[in-house]
Amino acid sequence: MGSDEKLLDCLIVGGGPAGLTAALYLARLRRNFVLIDSGAPRAAWIPKSHNIPVFASGISGPDLLARQRDTLAQYGVAPTIGTVSGLRRQPDRFVAVTEGEGGSRQISARYVLLATGGVDIEPDLPDLPNAIQRGLVRYCPICDGYESRDRRIAVIGYGDRGLGEAIFIARTYSRDVTLLTLGQPLEKPLRRQGELDALGVKVVEAPVERLDLEGDRIAALHAGGKELHFDVLYSALGLKYRSDLALSLDAEHDPSGGLIVDGHCQTSVKGLYAAGDIVRGLDQIVVAMGHAAMAAIHIHNRCELPTEDEPDGA
């Protein structure tokens, strides 16, 4: 296994909007850092987001990421393609094991910023793998629900998450909303039945037996002997957080693996920061960028001081 002898100020793990924003800040702050990117950011699935200021007509995830990488290139910074397979903490540094084209190597850094995000849980639709990645099912009504206003909308989900998203969409964007539980029965009596009734949200608990596709859209779903037609489908099945590196260091987290951070986006492990979807809270690109900015500035300021385990460290 190779080793990079030089101690970095920071190692950024993840090349999505959060990781790329942190890299921009650290580059302009003239810090010595490396960004490791596995090449699979969740943002790359976004057909078009309308919630990012200054992009009046919206911007796709791939276009946004390309623009961020082009901006970094002006500072001579490019992501290193690879993955971080292990992370351990020593008194004055973190040591990461990375895997890439050149094999395994070790990188040492005083601070680590995790921007590894999460992966949307795909709905189990018949003969239709990767529906979210293919854009047939959408996953962020906050980002593009306005463009779906007053249309027929289906929400795929169950439990409190599914109920909550169906109610959110019905309150905000459309009064024609159906919750599809894909055969998962809802607990009776429903705690939010009154809200569902008041908003006219329909519930279909039968599994989806068949789909009719037309080009790049799902034209109809067949469930419980009925043919159902919707203009837009949203998935509310949640995320699988890529927080294994932090959990291996016993970082504090919520039951689903979302990391709990302080006002500087530092985890409960001193020197370990997190930004973006991996942090418990609102999964939005502008929020991820804000996390990254706060973390990067705090890392920069801490680099001028001893680490917590060094003499006079705080």
Structure write-up:
- With 314 residues, this protein is α/β, with parallel strands linked by helices.
- The protein folds into two domains: 2-119 and 239-303, FAD/NAD(P)-binding domain, CATH 3.50.50.60; 122-235, 3-Layer(bba) Sandwich (FAD/NAD(P)-binding domain).
- Helices cover 24% and strands 27% of the residues.
- It is built from seven helices and 17 strands.
- It has helices at 17-28, 61-73, 141-144, 159-172, 193-199, 244-248, 285-303; strands at residues 2-3, 8-13, 33-37, 80-81, 83-90, 93-100, 103-114, 118-120, 153-156, 177-180, 202-204, 208-214, 217-223, 226-228, 232-235, 239-241, 272-274.
- Strand 2, helix 1 (17-28) and strand 3 form a beta-alpha-beta unit.
- 39% of the residues are buried.
Key features?
7 helices, 2 domains, 8-stranded mixed beta sheet, FAD/NAD(P)-binding domain, 314 residues, alpha/beta, 24% helix
Which term fits the overall shape?
elongated
User: How many discrete structural domains?
Assistant: 2
**What structural category characterises the helix and strand content?**
alpha/beta
Unreliable stretches covering 5 or more consecutive residues: none
For the largest beta-sheet, the strand count, sense and barrel status come to:
8 strands, mixed
CATH architecture group name of the largest domain: 3-Layer(bba) Sandwich
The CATH class of the largest domain? Alpha Beta
Distance between the termini: 34 Å
What is the CATH superfamily label of the largest domain? FAD/NAD(P)-binding domain
The number of helical elements comes to 7
Number of strands: 17
Could you give the order of the helices and strands?
EEHEHEEEEEHEHEHEEEEEEHEH
Beta-strand portion reads 25-35%
What is the CATH T-level topology of the largest domain?
Answer: FAD/NAD(P)-binding domain
Rg calculated over all Cα atoms:
22 Å
The amount of helix comes to 10-25%
* Averaged pLDDT: 91
